[in-house]
Amino acid sequence: MSQAASVKSESNPSKRSKLLVLDNLPNLPGVQECSPRVQQKIDLILLALEALELGSSEHMLATAQELELQSIIDNRVTLWRLRCSNPWRRSHSRDSLTVNQAKALTMIASFRARKLTVLIRQLLVARQQIQQKGLPLEQHFRLSEYLERFRAHFRGRMNSKRAKVAFYLSSDERLNDLAMSLLGQLLFCTGTAGMQRFWVSLFDGEVL
To answer: Where are the domains of the chain?
Structure first.
């Protein structure tokens, strides 16, 4: 989706009322579009959600409909195109997310994380307990399942020619560490004002 087309759609008065939900996230000074780093962060969070639950794309689209964000994300293809703004992807589109597009994806990620709060907490606690016992993470079936899915998604969708991607692809341990770090970020989204705090954290180091 081109930025011009997105802006035109969002400025339509008949659709603007349905975008009022985006006002739950603050506009940040000087931010007109998202940097590649922000786009990469958002996509990785969504990748972690995909590893957590089967049929994640359908759940994301259902959440977009629930939040009345169809004018931004109306189908699976649109969702995929927005996620391809992540420069780490093999199918990187080079289009920058608009602020409203980034807000929509952030809200969807946060709402999905809230639905999965119990599972996210269980997996984080399980990792801590397993590490304290000096056992491999594969000892916990549900945690092992999440990590295996995340590794498969990452390997299948990310461009191994990118230096940072190659770094993670070099070992399962590095991919596991990334997957667990993202779980921690998802838990961060579920707390009080978590969605707003997560949104602001995406721009750490970029906003004066």
So the answer is: 33-192
